[in-house]
Amino acid sequence: MAPSSKKDRTTNSGEAGKKGRSRAVLSATAVAAALAVMGVGVAVTGGGNGGSDGGKAAASSEKESQHGKASAKEAAGSKDELRDMAGGGGRAPSGTFSNRVVTWNLHGPGHHSAYEQARQIAQYRPGVIGFQEACKTKVDRIARALKKVHKLDYHVTYGTVNRKRGQCGGIFKGGAYGQAMLTAAPAKDAVNTRYSRGGTEPRGYMAVTVPVAGKDVRVFNTHFAQKTEGDPQTEVRAQQARELEAAARPHNRAVVLGDFNTLPSSSELAPVWQHFADADPYCGAKPDARCQGTIGTPPQRKKLDFILLRRGAFNPPGVGVHDPQGQSDHSLVHADLKPLF
Predict the structure, then answer these.
(1) Distances in Å between the alpha carbon of 9 and those of 49, 63, 259?
(2) For the chain, what is the mean pLDDT?
(3) What is the DSSP string of 169-220?
């Protein structure tokens, strides 16, 4: 069941222009309009978007996914990010926020529409997207829709952990299933590793190095073992957490995306918190009612989906938890990052 939350409200920025203005003012207006089309200067922190279908600049506000007010500068991710979006010194393709990362569990093959999932992603225009429960066939359709319909061209890296035929809908379809990442800039040094213990099915993590706000960042993407009836698999997840932390810790600028299938305060995540913090400042080793849930309906919403940041590497980010609108059982989660070095 999709979590209930308020839908984004958008406001469109109108075109400037008025008879009798000087040529200089018209020129300035044209530049501002061009930047607006690319999303520059649009307030997005806590549940906003960098642009909408049709090229109109939009800002969205989600009450449940904000931890405070943010300025347009914070929302866009600093002056450097503005230059990225304007194409002046940044490497991210036009139309995406190079400082924005997203994690989203796609709920396996399901009966969800790849075009609707792409539409939701396009609202936020992230530079990096981590998918879990991702069928290769579904990821390919999402990437095509983002390119053809929304003019967002992503590089795709797969983190397949299971090739069981029929896993992804239909006995005659390929079963490539696991994690996947979409990146606006080309990814490099990709790895895909299975955990030593998968639990009821194979599990693993993938990692790539990709620019985030102009700085190379090592981005991990994972999905831990799920609890099953009669088998909580606590020790399996604990082992997976230890292996993931050991792989991510050596990187000074590291981000970990994923569905951990357990609460932030659970014992199995204890190894993670020494060197990493969640992008949501209220989610950590100690329970906090302000920590935003990512699955379920109130009052049973739970935090299972994480964006972990290497401690000391990033400024406090803007965070958004978004209603999946029936296209998954998990919320889409985004964070806007600014590397400190």
Answers:
(1) 10, 10, 27
(2) 79
(3) SSTTS---EEEEEEESSPPEEEEEEE-S--SSS--EEEEEEEEETTEEEEEE
Q: What end-to-end distance do the CA atoms of the chain give, in Å?
A: 41
CA angle centred on 279, ends 277 and 285, rounded to 5°: 40
Specify the pLDDT at position 215. 97
CA distance 279 to 46: 11
Q: Could you tell me the two tokens for 33?
A: 């309009």
CA-wise closest residue to 152 among 93, 211, 86, 77: 93
Residue in the block written with tokens 């914070």: 74
Taking each helix axis as running N to C, give the angle between helix 136-148 and helix 114-124, from 0 to 180 degrees, rounded to the nearest 10.
Answer: 60
Distance CA 337, CA 315 (A): 7
Report CA Rg, the chain.
20
pLDDT one-digit tens code per residue, 169-188: 765 556 789 999 999 999 99
Name the 3-class secondary structure at 258: strand
| DSSP, residue by residue, 57-112 | -EEEE-GGG-SS---HHHHHTSHHHHHHHHTSS--SPTTSEEEEEEEEE--SSTT-
Cα-based torsion angle of the residue sequence 315, 308, 139, 155 in order, rounded to the nearest 10 degrees: 40
pLDDT digits (tens, 9 = 90+) for 34-72: 333 333 333 333 333 333 333 333 333 343 344 433 333
Pull the structure tokens for residue 198: 């998968």
Of 139, 135, 178, nearest to 160 by C-alpha is 178
